[in-house]
Design goal:
The longest helix has 25 residues, at 333-357. The protein starts with 12 loop residues before the first strand and ends in a 29-residue tail after the last helix. It is globular and about 75 Å long. Strands 1, 2, 8, 9, 10, 11, 17 and 18 form an eight-stranded mixed beta sheet that branches. An eight-stranded mixed beta sheet has the order 6-5-13-14-15-12-16-19, sandwiched between helices. The chain has a five-stranded mixed beta sheet with strand order 24-23-22-25-26. The chain is α/β, with parallel strands linked by helices. Helix content is 28%, strand content 26%.
Amino acid sequence: MPENPSPAALDPVDVVIVGAGPTGLTLANLLGLYGVRTLLVEANNELIDYPRGVGMDDESLRAFQQIGLVDEIRNHTTPHQIMRFVNGKGTLLAELDPQTDEFGWPRRNAFIQPLVDAELHRGTDRFDHVDVVFGHQMASFAETRDGVTVDLIGPDGAPVTVSARYLVGADGGRSSTRKSLGLTFEGRTEPSSWLVVDIRNDPLGTPNAYMGCDPSRPYVSIGLPHGIRRFEFMLMPGEDQSFADDDGNLHRLLGQLIPDPARADLIRRRVYTHHSRVAGSFRKSRVMVAGDAAHLMPVWQGQGFNSGIRDAVNLGWKLACVVRGTASERLLDSYDSERRPHAAAMVDLSDKVGKVISPTSRVLASARDLVFRGLGVVPAAKDYVAQMKFKPMPFYEQGAVVHREAEAAGTPCAGRLFIQPRVSTREQTDVLFDEVTGPWFTVVAWNNNPLALLDDKARAVWQQLGARFVEVRPDSGLHYGEQPDGVTLVGDPTGRLKSWFDQRPESFVVVRPDRFVAGACLAQNASSLTHRIAESLHLIPGGNDAPRPVLPVALPADGVRAAAS
């Protein structure tokens, strides 16, 4: 579609997204995948072209897998990036090197955000029903009886109006959407500032990330893909942007870490301040906020970017169900109840990691070093840090989930991400689980035909939702017997699915499009669980069938849309 259509092309849509950052672009791709008419508007004339976020986790890669762009995005990543904390003497304090791939991808990845954003933007070209317009700033919006009217200012200053069912503000930390809604932005701003410096032709050329916990001046050094190096330096009282703009000062800072600062090929230098804030609500009627518009956090765990992607993945399928008429608007309430607590937990984690890095008191720094030295001699504590077991994993206590009615042995799974091991089918081997199930609802049973466990009414619920039915078997029995009608047989060559089911009493599991478990039960309770999940999803009795994910139009390497086959 044309990138800057004339005002006449701004026809009514289902969803308007404000802000073409990673959150808005990911949401636009998801809505495109679900067949939702979407307009993404961006005030700038082009995507931001300088590096910002540098850390991507396994949940984000799984989201990009869902929208069919993971291979393009992985071109701009360094998987399994290790983060090392060193003190002022260069002594190793701690190392983050998680080896898990429970969700199908490495937990820590360095990346180049402008290139990833460009891939996400290009991905929207696959959908005829998704438009992206640059140079359009949102001036105001107003709710109507059945939608939202959004007033824009075009590149020439002329007013443009578009009507939508819903509006999503992904317009950054200074979000005009959030401010117009009157939402609070609770939290604090750090008193100290940092200088970020990005350099081409990496003057060190070494991989991984180093957190310099030096009380004389804390710093960060990160090796990024494509020969880029990021440095960050804490600025001391009296040092500001003018200090950072002075080449002599910059060379003195860099001279502590690289051989020849004068030869550094500078991309940018910028002073920034860390904010720790969460909006008082992520939704108000037909308007939602996401990404930095909903939460800001320090950079120390790279979770600002990833939290925005989580917002998009949580919200996309819910908007699709409501727009389609499959579920009532009450489903959208779960966006706030599910995402806001976890976003606040990630802000808190980022704050705590910042306190480890940034003490400028030598007494506090020495005490910190002693604590880490002690943790390093206890294998369990060392592993807890190295494997990032301290990272709060999303867990939805409330929302579109159904928890156990009574205490039971084993690890609860409702409200948590389902795993993604490599599996087999009768047609494929060594394929990731989500590639088999697709990007929508999945009904999974261990060693049982899930359709055979359901009564007619329960079966109709999942068929109306367009769910995929999956029977997981030991790999040894994958090819035994006839293929059940309407069911995909999945083999478990690694045994990880068997282990997952073995750790809990449930054998029947419903996985939402965002890959969270909506509910689980014993096989004979499958029908009753189905009706409880339908209530939690606020499905409309006799409502429209759920949106079926659409096949995106393939783009060749030159980025020109290919004709649909």
